[in-house]
Amino acid sequence: MNTNTVEIIDRGLRCLSANLGAKEAEIFISTLLRERFDYTNWRQSFVDSIKTFKDLDELLQQTKKNVHFKGKAEIIL
To answer: How do the domains of the chain map onto residue ranges?
Structure first.
C-alpha cells in the first residue's frame, strides 16, 4: 500500500470510531467485508435516483426525518 492509501484508511477508521464507537465501527467493517457490499454500485443507484435539485432536496428532507445520527454528516455526490 502506498502512503496515500494508508492515510486514507487511517482517516476513515478514525472517522468511523469517532462517530460509531470502536465496537460499532468494527461491526460495520466486518459486515461490509462479509456481505461483499459494492459501494460503487450502491452509490450509482443513489445518484441515478436524483434528477433535479428538487429530488435532492426531497431526499435530504426525508433523510432528516428518518435518521437519528449524532455525528457530523456530509453528503458528497
So the answer is: 1-37, 38-77
